[in-house]
Amino acid sequence: MNAMSLARALALAAAAACCTGAFATEHVVTQKAKAFSTKKLSLKVGDSIKFVNEDPFSHNVFSLSDAKSFDLGSYGQGGSKSIVFDKPGTVEVECAVHPDMKLIVEVQK
User: Fold this and answer.
1) How far apart are CA 52 and CA 32, in angstroms?
2) Under a CB-based contact definition with an 8 Å cutoff, are residues 94 and 70 in contact?
3) What pLDDT, on a 0 to 100 scale, did the predictor assign at position 18?
4) What is the model's pTM?
5) 24-37: buried (b, 16+ CB within 10 Å) or exposed (e) per residue?
């Protein structure tokens, strides 16, 4: 591979890396008074949710859903954790500390 071909290949790789996820959106869901700020949220594959704790105690956001299984761990007041949703489906999100906290996330293609 000559220098010009290598330069082109690197430029194309950089452009692809730069633009991957360029249209992804970060949604913010706050946690206050032992509740999520919304009960249902629709987003697209590649979008993320940033969970922000506005309560004076810890929360632990998790899901056991087939579309997205995760456990963000505990985090206190002023803390936040984010998660990217990488495939379509329905994701039931809960708080391990407060079982009445529930959020349904519908992930579209």
Assistant:
1) 9
2) no
3) 47
4) 0.79
5) eeebebebeeebbe
**Segment 33-58 mean pLDDT:** 98
Question: What is the C-alpha to C-alpha distance for residues 23 and 7, in angstroms, rounded to an integer?
Answer: 26
Please give the structure tokens belonging to residue 104: 């349904």
* Rounded distance between C-alpha atoms, residue 20 and residue 97, angstroms: 35
Q: Return the exposure string of 61-92: e unless at least 16 CB atoms fall within 10 Å of the residue's CB, then b.
A: bbbebebbebebebbeeebebebebeeeeebe
The per-residue DSSP string of 4-54 comes to HHHHHHHHHHHHHHHHTTTT--EEEEEEETTEES-SEEEEETT-EEEEEE-
**Which residue is it, tokens 């591979």?**
1
In the chain, DSSP finds a helix count (H) and a strand count (E) of 1, 9
